[in-house]
């Protein structure tokens, strides 16, 4: 191998080493989770050393302009690959740490609301930066107890707008209808349930052992419509244990406190959103079914204040709401195939406002988000491996015929 070939190979290795080390060093400067200080300084030294070799190689090659013994085609192919890699590294750093906050806010707010994937953002950002982003993206819930008198269950016959018409036009004995639309180019499904007495909390048949897919639970129970329910214990990889307070058919299933908030349905078939409660208090209020989740989107007709994306990012979402006439709204919004899109808390709130919800709350989302009709999964859940499937859950919201 002649000197010129050797110098060119050194150049290629230097380019690859320089940009790789630079990326890892900058990541280490912004967070010590993925790369600790010891390795950060090793990558700094590697970056400096490789830059020296890179610069020296360029100078030598400039002096030796003729490409004797080296084919132009090979030179161009390798150079294009190296250039593509360099551009990719620079673009990656620009997206993570550049002046535009879009990706940063999406990654931090989305990852920090997951149960097991907070490290996605902790790898790249410090606790201070994560806190700064979360402080700028938050939801301030309405600080009121649910006023059940605002839901009078009286039939509305006149359409105030096109959305009212979508809701209210139905056959006399129709149990539910499904309205389909798009949210941020993702599929959305709104289940409209005309009799709230038919809505309740369903449970996995292997409670505290194994969670089950919503479509299987719905088929076993004979539910005509179903969505996923409340949160479940973080450490429970089988999805068998509901988090916080859970009530089904007037029986307390778990009583771990309100956590984010309790979403309940009373014996009078009114949706109630409760804070700082427990099982006995909820039963005294006449709650027959309940799960724990949040945040609350609308309370007593007043929408929560949402700053930025609400601190939850964009993802697949599920929400429940109730109109003044008692009609229950079950909303599911899909994500895209890379889990980078979906709905924000503001999107959910605006949809619930549009369709007349007096009270509305967020349910568990992400891979949990499922919309099932007569035992068939209609939407497209995507898990963290990007596989098109949901996961086992302990609770779900069911509609019986």
Architecture overview:
- It is a single chain.
- The chain has 401 residues and is of the alpha+beta class.
- It has 3 domains: 3-99; 105-136; 142-399, no CATH class.
- It is built from 10 helices and 19 strands.
- It has helices spanning 3-30, 37-63, 72-97, 102-112, 119-122, 127-136, 162-168, 214-221, 279-284, 345-354, and strands spanning 138-140, 176-183, 186-193, 199-203, 225-228, 245-248, 251-255, 262-266, 271-274, 287-292, 296-299, 302-303, 305-307, 317-323, 328-333, 357-362, 371-373, 376-377, 395-399.
- The strands form 5 sheets. A 7-stranded antiparallel β-sheet has the order 2-3-15-14-16-11-12, covered by helices on one side.
Number of spatially distinct domains: 3
From the spread of the alpha carbons, the general shape counts as: elongated
End-to-end CA span: 80 Å
The Cα radius of gyration reads 27 Å
Low-confidence stretches: none
| Main beta-sheet strand count, sense and barrel state | 7 strands, antiparallel
Taken as a percent bin, the fraction of beta residues is 15-25%
């Amino acid at each position: 191998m002649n000197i010129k070939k050797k110098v060119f190979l050194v150049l290629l290795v230097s380019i690859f080493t320089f940009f790789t080390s630079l990326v890892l060093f900058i990541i280490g400067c912004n967070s010590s989770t993925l790369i600790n200080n010891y390795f950060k300084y090793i990558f700094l030294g590697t970056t400096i050393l490789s830059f020296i070799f890179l610069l020296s190689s360029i100078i030598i090659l400039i002096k030796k302009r003729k490409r004797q013994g080296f084919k132009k085609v090979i030179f161009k192919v390798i150079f294009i690959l190296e250039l593509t890699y360099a551009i990719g590294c620079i673009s990656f750093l620009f997206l993570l740490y550049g002046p535009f906050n879009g990706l940063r806010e999406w990654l931090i707010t989305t990852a920090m609301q997951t149960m097991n994937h907070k490290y996605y953002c902790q790898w790249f950002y410090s606790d201070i930066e994560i806190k700064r982003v979360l402080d700028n993206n938050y939801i301030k819930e309405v600080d009121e107890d649910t006023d059940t008198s605002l839901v009078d269950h009286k039939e509305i016959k006149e359409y105030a707008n096109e959305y009212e018409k979508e809701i209210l036009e139905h056959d006399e004995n129709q149990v539910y209808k499904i309205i389909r639309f798009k949210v941020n180019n993702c599929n959305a499904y709104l289940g409209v349930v005309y009799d709230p007495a038919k809505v309740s909390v369903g449970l996995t048949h292997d409670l505290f052992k194994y969670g089950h897919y919503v479509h299987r639970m719905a088929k076993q129970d004979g539910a005509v419509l179903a969505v996923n329910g409340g949160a479940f214990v973080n450490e429970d990889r089988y999805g068998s244990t509901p988090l916080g307070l859970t009530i089904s058919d007037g029986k307390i299933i778990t009583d771990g406190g309100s956590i984010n908030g309790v979403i309940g349905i009373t014996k009078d078939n009114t949706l109630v959103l409760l804070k700082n409660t427990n099982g006995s208090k909820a039963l005294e209020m006449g709650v027959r079914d309940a799960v724990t989740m949040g945040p609350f989107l609308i309370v007593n007709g007043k929408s929560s204040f949402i700053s930025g994306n609400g601190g939850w990012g964009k993802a697949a979402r599920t929400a429940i709401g109730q109109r003044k006439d008692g009609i229950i709204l079950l909303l599911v919004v899909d994500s895209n195939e890379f889990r980078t899109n979906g709905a924000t808390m503001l999107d959910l709130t605006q949809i619930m406002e549009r369709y007349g919800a007096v009270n509305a709350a967020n349910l568990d989302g992400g891979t949990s988000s499922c919309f099932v009709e007569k035992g068939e999964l209609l939407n497209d859940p995507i898990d963290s491996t990007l596989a098109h499937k949901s996961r086992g859950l302990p609770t779900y919201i069911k509609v019986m015929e």
